[in-house]
C-alpha cells in the first residue's frame, strides 16, 4: 500500500511541476510578442526569415525586412503583400517611390 501511495504522490508532484513550467513558458512567450526589447527582436527576426524564405535574394530581403521590422515593430504575414496588417511597413518607400520593405 505504501509504495502505491508514494507512486501516486510522486506522479502528482511531477504533474504540478510540469504545469508550473508550462505556465512559465507561456508567460515568457507572451512577453516576447509584446516587448520591444531583446525578445521582441528575436521574434521579429524569426518572422523576417519566414517572409524572405522564398526570395531570390535572401540576404538582401533579410536586411531590408530587418530594417523595416526594427522601425515599425511589426511584419506582415506571408511572403508577399498583406500590407494592411502593418501600415508603417507599407508606407516606407525608397527615394524612387518604390516600397522599401519586401
Automatic annotation (TrEMBL):
Q: Where is the signal peptide?
A: 1-25
Keywords of the record, alphabetical order, are:
Signal
Q: Which residues cross the membrane?
A: none
Q: Does the keyword Signal apply?
A: yes
Q: Does the keyword Signal apply?
A: yes
Q: Which family does it belong to?
A: Belongs to the GASA family.
Protein name per UniProt: (wild Malaysian banana) hypothetical protein
Which species does the entry assign this protein to? Musa acuminata subsp. malaccensis (Wild banana)
Amino acid at each position: 500500500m505504501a509504495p502505491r501511495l508514494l507512486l501516486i504522490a510522486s506522479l502528482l508532484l511531477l504533474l504540478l511541476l510540469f504545469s508550473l513550467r508550462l505556465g512559465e513558458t507561456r508567460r515568457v512567450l507572451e512577453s516576447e510578442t509584446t516587448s520591444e526589447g531583446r525578445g521582441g527582436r528575436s521574434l521579429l527576426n524569426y518572422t523576417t526569415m519566414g517572409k524572405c524564405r522564398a526570395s531570390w535574394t535572401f540576404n538582401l530581403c533579410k536586411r531590408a525586412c530587418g530594417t523595416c521590422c526594427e522601425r515599425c515593430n511589426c511584419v506582415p504575414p506571408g511572403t508577399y503583400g498583406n500590407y494592411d496588417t502593418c501600415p508603417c511597413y507599407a508606407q516606407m518607400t525608397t527615394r524612387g517611390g518604390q516600397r522599401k520593405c519586401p
